[in-house]
């Protein structure tokens, strides 16, 4: 039985979308086997999809020093269903923002910490147009979290 990696993202800009594509590419690398990768926009992901996932990749722009309202909404609608049921699950984060990314990181640390999720990769933070190195970091993030789910 394969494990399920859920990518919950809000990618409203071309820069965010570039990062998302790199994360997906890493998570779906052919060398990673036994992992089903689901991609869901943050505004449409269901609590059941979040509950059934074995690991998570979370992507968001940083707006006014906070994660996007869309990603916050995904957690608002599922937090209590996930509480206790998803402790210890691996996750990783990528953020795109020009300033105030600390607030977004703090918010996600609070949410995921409250759920008991385990960070398995360093958060990728990009300002402006993603460079080749930034996109490589996104690819590595996707691959690292997906590889955590391999048996």
TrEMBL record:
It comes from the Bacteria. One of its GO terms (molecular function) is oxidoreductase activity. InterPro entries: Flavoprotein-like_sf, FMN_Rdtase-like_dom. Residues 50-127 form the NADPH-dependent FMN reductase-like domain. This is Multimeric flavodoxin WrbA. It comes from Mycolicibacterium aurum (Mycobacterium aurum). The lineage of its organism: Bacteria, Bacillati, Actinomycetota, Actinomycetes, Mycobacteriales.
């Amino acid at each position: 039985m394969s494990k399920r990696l859920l990518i919950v993202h809000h990618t409203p800009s071309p820069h965010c979308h570039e990062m998302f594509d790199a994360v997906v590419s890493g998570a779906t690398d052919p060398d990673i086997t036994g992992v089903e990768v689901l991609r869901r926009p943050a505004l449409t992901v269901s609590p059941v999809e979040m509950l059934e996932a074995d690991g998570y990749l979370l992507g968001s722009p940083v707006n006014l020093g906070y994660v996007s309202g869309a990603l916050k909404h995904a957690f608002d609608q599922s937090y209590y269903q996930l509480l206790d049921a998803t402790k210890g699950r691996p996750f990783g984060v990528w953020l795109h923002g020009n300033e105030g990314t600390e607030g977004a990181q703090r918010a996600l640390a609070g949410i995921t910490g409250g759920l008991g999720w385990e960070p398995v990769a360093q958060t990728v933070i990009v300002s402006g147009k993603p460079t080749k190195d930034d996109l490589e970091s996104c690819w590595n993030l996707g691959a690292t979290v997906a590889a955590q789910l391999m048996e």
